[in-house]
Amino acid sequence: MESRIERIKKQLHSASYKLTPQREATVRVLLEHEEDHLSAEDVYLLVKEKAPEIGLATVYRTLELLNELKVVDKINFGDGVSRYDLRQEGAAHFHHHLVCIECGAVDEIQEDLLEDVEKVVERDWKFQVKDHRLTFHGICWRCQEKNGTEETKEESLEKQHVE
Amino acid sequence: MESRIERIKKQLHSASYKLTPQREATVRVLLEHEEDHLSAEDVYLLVKEKAPEIGLATVYRTLELLNELKVVDKINFGDGVSRYDLRQEGAAHFHHHLVCIECGAVDEIQEDLLEDVEKVVERDWKFQVKDHRLTFHGICWRCQEKNGTEETKEESLEKQHVE
DNA sequence: ATTGTAATGATTTTATTTTGCAACTTCCTC
DNA sequence: GAGGAAGTTGCAAAATAAAATCATTACAAT
User: Fold this and answer.
1) Is the Cβ–Cβ distance between B19 and B25 less than 8 Å?
2) Which InterPro entries match (chains A, B) (predicted)?
3) C-alpha angle A54/A56/A61, rounded to 5°?
C-alpha cells in the first residue's frame, strides 16, 4: 500500500506534478476502495472524512490528473455519473466489468480476454488499438443462485450488495 | 424504411405505447442518421426541422422509451453526453465501436466478435451474459494513412497525444 | 525573505437531463 | 356523438454533474 503510493508519487513527479496531502488522501481512498467503483462525489465524501477541508473541485482535478496519468480509468456504466477505477499496476489495458442487471453489483475481470479480438480488429479494420472498454451486462452468480434455489443462510450471509 | 417503422410501431403497441407523430418523427431521424451517433440535442434539432413544435423533453422521453424497448442503445463515449444508436434489427447483442483518439471518428463493427469471450465469461465467472458494450480506443485507418504520408512510421509511433 | 509557479477551496457557470403539471389526444363505453 | 380514463405533450422549473473562475495559500528555488 505504502509502496504503491510511493510509485504513484514518482509517476506524478516524473510528469512534474506533486503529491500534495489532498492528492495523497484521494489516492488512499481509491486504494482502500479498489473493489468499488466510486463516483467523484463518492470519493469526495470519503476523502472528506480524512481531510475535511478538501474541496470537491480538488477531487475532480485530482481524478482528472490521475486519469491522464493512467493511474485510474474513468468509466461510465450508463447512469449519468463517471466512475473512477484504479488500473492494475503495469496493466497495458483496462480491465473488464460484469454489471449485474438484477442487483447492480459490479465485478471485475483483470484477465485480458481481448487479445485475439484486438488482432482481428487491427487486421480487418486497420484500427490501431490503444485501449478498450468492455462491459458485460447480465446476471451475476449470486443472483443466479438466489433465483435458482431457495436461499440458504450461508448465501444470505454472503450477500452484501446495496443499490 | 417504412417497414422498419411499421415494425417499431408494433413493438411499441405490444408494450401498449403509441407511435405518435412526435415519436415517429424521432424514429425517422434515427433511421436517417443510422451511421451517426447522435446526442439527444442532435436528435432534437433534427426532429425540429420536420416537426418544429416538438419539445426537447419529448425527445428525451422518446429516446428513453426506445432504449427500454431495445430499439436504440444509449452509449457514452466519455464526453459528457449520451448518444443514441439504433440496434440492428434482430441483433441479439449491441454492436461495437472504434473511437479514434486522433480525429474523434466513431466507426461501428456489426460483427459479433465476442462469442468466444462470452463463453469464457459464462464458464469461468458464472456470469449469464445478456448484453455487452465494447469500445476500442485507438487510431483509425484514415489517421494512420494521413500520418503515414507526412512522416515515417517511427515518428508517428512516437507522437504524444495531448488533450 | 522574496518571488514565481502550482495547487487549493469556495463559488459560479454551463450543460445535460429529468420532473411537475396543465392542456391536449385517443380510444373506449355508453 | 358525449363523457372519461389513460397516455402523451410542451413548457417551465428543478436537479445533476462537471468545469471554469478567481482570490488565496503553499512551496520550491532563488
Assistant:
1) no
2) FUR, Fur_C, WH-like_DNA-bd_sf, WH_DNA-bd_sf
3) 100
Supply the pLDDT for residue B150. 65
Residue A138 in grid coordinates: 447480465
Nearest 5°: the CA angle A136, A141, A146 is: 130
pLDDT of B119 over the 50 cut: yes
Of A113, A125, A137, the CB nearest to B98: A125
Closest CA to A141 of B126, B19, B133: B126
Say which DSSP state B4 is in: H
CA distances from A87 to A8, A30, A93, A131, B102 (A): 12, 11, 8, 12, 23
Q: What does the block give as the cell for A46?
A: 470519503
pLDDT band (50, 70, 90) for residue B117: very high
| Å between CA of B78 and C1' of D10 | 31
Residue B122 burial (C-beta neighbours within 10 Å; 0-12, 13-18, 19+): middle
Q: Which residues in chain B have their CB less than 8 angstroms from residue A148's CB?
A: none
Q: What is the mean pLDDT of chain A?
A: 88
- Amino acid sitting at position B110: Q
The pTM is what?
Answer: 0.83
Q: Which nucleotide comes closest to A23 if you measure CA to C1'?
A: C7
CA dihedral A60, A81, A118, B93 (to 10 degrees): 180
Judge whether residue A53 contacts strand C, using its CB and a 7 Å cut-off. yes
From the CA of A56 to the C1' of C3: give the distance in Å. 30
**Higher pLDDT, residue A62 or A35:** A62
CB contact under 8 A, B133 and A135: yes
Return the residue matching grid coordinates 490528473. A65
The type of residue at B133 is R
The amino acid present at B163, given as its one-letter code, is E
